[in-house]
Amino acid sequence: MAAHVVGGSVGWIVPQNGAQEYITWASGQKFLVGDVLIFNFATDTHDVVEVPKPWFDSCSSTNPIGSTITTGPDNVTLTAAGDHYYICTFGRHCQSGQKHPITVSASATSPGASWSMSYRRAQVSLSLQVMARQ
C-alpha cells in the first residue's frame, strides 16, 4: 500500500497551470488497489467528490460516486481498479483545473496470485520430500 499526496507539494488547490498540473503529477505515480489518496486542502475552501467521466468532463457533481468530502485534509482508499475521476465543486474550481483523473491497477499481490504462488511452492516442497524418500 502506498500513500499519494494529490498534487504533491502543491496539494488539492486550483492549479496555476490548469488541470495539466494534476495530469503531470499523476503520470509519475502508480496507483494500485489498496493505495490511499491524500487530499490536502483547508476545510471551507475546497472539497472532493468522485464522479463518472462525463460529469468529470463537464465539471458537474450531480451524479456523485459516494459522498462529497468537505473536511480537509482527508484520505480516499482506492478500492477498485479502473479509471477514477475527482473534482472540486467549490465555485468554478473544477472549470479552472481542480480536477484529477487517475487509473488504478489491480493490486500487485492480489489474493489469486498469492494463492497460486503458495500452491506452487507446496507442490515443489511435496515433490522434494517424495524424492528424498526414494
Provide tags for this entry.
single chain, 134 residues, alpha/beta, 8 strands, globular, disordered C terminus
Summarize the model shown.
This protein is an alpha/beta fold.
Low-confidence spans: 110-134
As a percent range, the share of strand residues is 25-35%
- Overall form: globular
Q: Helix proportion of residues, in percent?
A: 25-40%
Q: Order of strands in the sheet with the most strands?
A: 2-8-7-4-5
Largest sheet: 5 strands, mixed
Give the rounded overall mean pLDDT: 84
Q: Which radius of gyration do the C-alpha atoms yield?
A: 21 Å
Termini separation:
45 Å
Per DSSP E runs of 2 or more residues, the count of β-strands stands at: 8
Number of helices: 3
